[in-house]
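Batch job 17 of 40 flagged for manual review because the log was empty.
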Amino acid sequence: MGGWRLDESSRRGLLAAVLLGMPALAGAGTPAREQEVSGTETTEDTLSGGVVDGVEGDEGGVTADAATEGPTGDDTGEGMEEALAEAVPVKGVPGEQVSPVGPVPGKAAEPSAEKKGKKKKAKPGEARSESLGENPDAVDDTPEEELADVRVFGRVYARASADERQKYARSLSIPSARVGVSTSLSNLEAEVTADLADNSLLKDAFVRLSDDSKRFRLYGGQFKSPFLQRTLESSWDLPIQGRGLVEDYLTDVHQLGGRRLGLMGEVRLKGVWGLKVSAGVFEGGEDETGMRLKEDAAARVSIRPFKALTVGMSGYVAEAWDVAKRNAYSADAELRLGGLALAGEAVMGRLPLGPFTAQLLLTHYTLPVGSGQWALQPLAGFEALQLRGDVEGKGHALVGGLNLLLGDRFKAQFQAERALRPGDETAALEYSLQLATRF
């Protein structure tokens, strides 16, 4: 190999390059112990493309002694530390530097991708289990990185009951067997849900458009109208089985609220006490002959003055562009303090039978069991309904129970209800046990 000379800066650069390459050579080539015994080191000459033996060298070359001597020729090792601490330009490649091994003294280490807050996208199986039609705020409360592009979900409720009205004859039923598919994109959410246990197979089928800040949204399709806090609550989050006699009477019997075909706009301002305003136009109900009535209108306003409290008001007007014979308005509040939750709602309005009022109260407490995902949830609730027109009538229900929860995937619910429902002559007692799971 022909002779070549190195000035001081080139020697430093070459020394640093050799030291940086030693760990890789030790892992891929001869073991360190064998090299120590043989006394010969072999490395690749990056400048000439050949191989340099550590014990040989021409005039001006790098010898084994040069590898141990510092740039100043002393053998104290201070020269090596200086070479590692400095980023020395390699001769012939201006501006290119050799990075030192390990952190440079006085310079903070570069944070890793995880420490910078970079989140990996969740797998489809790790996405949220909540239906957007059951809980419209589900996407808002979930980080975008954890949302799956396409998601399949479902739930099954199995119930056994014994009712005093039927002389405690045992009854087995599947109140809900729901399955659905949804997609969540940056400015679009869509969902289709069917309930195989219901006579009305299609539950939700809608598209929701939003701006980049998620402040303004537009719904189109079939979904829940913004009326009654009890109706808007997800059935999975409700501690009781069903939604109670008031919701059944207003929604199922008199067609005020519930799921409807319609168009709705929504504004959500988190910086203004969590203000949320929803208003829309919906397909009308049906009369006694099955004829479709004119369109209905519904609206709701809610705020969150502080984290534990949510208050709201909502209204529903049937045949809004005609002589309205059916309407209802409500005010509600929900307080959550740790495992304790307390919700109340007052409703008033007019039905074909005359004016009415109603009150709903529900409380429950979630008590963790052990260090796992198990929890016990005792509950108590009360409802009352009063017809105040020419036709007077009253209804009420008192319910208590205990739920056993396993995370957010399974729950066993036992409850007892003593209720005087519309059409009953006297109050009656009903016991029921429900097993529920979702995916």
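Reviewer: the log was empty due to a logging misconfiguration, but the result itself is present. Residues 385 and 395 are 5 Å apart (CA to CA). Unflagging and moving on to job 18.
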